[in-house]
Amino acid sequence: MKEIKVWDRSTRIFHWINFTAIVALLVVGFLMLYKRELGISSIEAKIGLKQLHVVIGYLFAANLLWRIVGFFTGGYYSRWRQVFPGKGFRQRLKHYLKAEKAGKKQDYAGHNPAGQLAVAVMFCLLLMMMVTGLVRAGTDIYYPPFGGFVTEYIAVEGVEPESLKPYDKTGVDVEKQAALKSFKKPFGLIHLYSAYVLMFIIFLHIFAVVYAEIAKQRGIISAMFSGSKYFEGEPVDKPER
Ligand code: HEM
Questions:
Q1: How confident is the model at residue 241 (pLDDT cuts 50, 70, 90)?
Q2: Where are the alpha helices (DSSP H) in the chain?
Q3: Atom of ligand 1 nearest to the CA of 32
Q4: Which residue owns the Cα nearest ligand 1 atom 15?
Q5: Distance (Å) from CA 234 to ligand 1 centroid
Q6: 71 C-alpha vs ligand 1 centroid, how far in Å?
């Protein structure tokens, strides 16, 4: 068996921080969403949950941005060309699906074309969650990077923007606050619906990986810990020389 180092260390660390952060964000996010049903009614608890969600969100965002750097600096299989569908993708997908249908064994070191598609959708969703989450962190609890602009905009003239407190109307211009409410609403909706779609895709991702591990290619799950996969022959997507 030939060993191929597929996932570099940075990609593996990203993957597990990303997974942990998303699970934590989903748990706290749904606590926020169903707070009334769960008997959480105090404003302090509501703000506290949001602050916790946002702090985990910063870890998630920093990790995601680090992975984007890795698309350009990482190992061969971590580069964006191997991760996202690019030139000749349709052809590769067709070829892959045809071979699958015919029951032909195809070993990929990195992502197979169907996997590439799923990963691309996941990254787009993660970016969308990050951007909409950061906007809502600014508009709801005045947290960075946008909170400073928000308080400056809604503070009544003569009031120090830094003195404004979330969910407290003291020193806030009522008209501007109403405008802010309409502005932030679509960001909240996109954030929420993306979370539902993301949950569905994560479920598919886990199902596909477990199925592939059992039915097709042993060792793909352990490769996200060790970095290595083992092949009898050459993988379909070996590095071009
Ligand atoms: C994959 C990552 C994320 C997931 C799965 C997630 C999930 C959720 C969920 C389920 C909600 C509840 C929606 C609601 O109450 O309407 C929520 C709300 C929120 N999230 Fe996230 N989130 C993520 C990333 C982030 C990030 C990166 C930030 C900011 C740093 C953030 C900030 C917020 C804020 C401020 C809210 C409250 C919005 C509102 O009250 O409508 N989220 N999130």
A1: low
A2: 9-33, 43-73, 80-83, 89-101, 113-141, 147-154, 174-215, 223-226
A3: 15
A4: 33
A5: 43
A6: 25
Nearest atom of ligand 1 to the alpha carbon of 33: 15
User: Rounded distance, CA 224 to CA 133, Å?
Assistant: 28
Domains, the chain, ordered by start: 2-85+94-101+110-228 (1.20.950.20)
Residue in this structure with the two tokens 């591990």, named with its chain if needed: 213
Peptide bond into 166 cis (omega under 30): no
pLDDT one-digit tens code per residue, 225-236: 999 999 988 888
> Ligand 1 test: best mutation among 26, 135, 136, 201, most atoms within 8 Å of CB?
136
Three-class secondary structure of residue 161 per DSSP: helix
Residues in the chain: 241
Sign of the Cα pseudo-torsion (225, 230, 234, 235, in order): negative
What integer pLDDT is reported at residue 238 of this predicted model?
Answer: 83
Pocket of ligand 1 (CB under 6 A): 22, 25-26, 29-30, 32-33, 50, 53-54, 57-58, 60-61, 126, 129-130, 133-134, 136-137, 140, 188, 191-192, 195, 198
Segment 41-56 shows an average pLDDT of 97
Rounded CA separation 230/161 (Å): 58
Tokens for 152? 């400056």
* Amino acid code (one letter) for 70: G
pTM tops 0.85, yes or no: yes
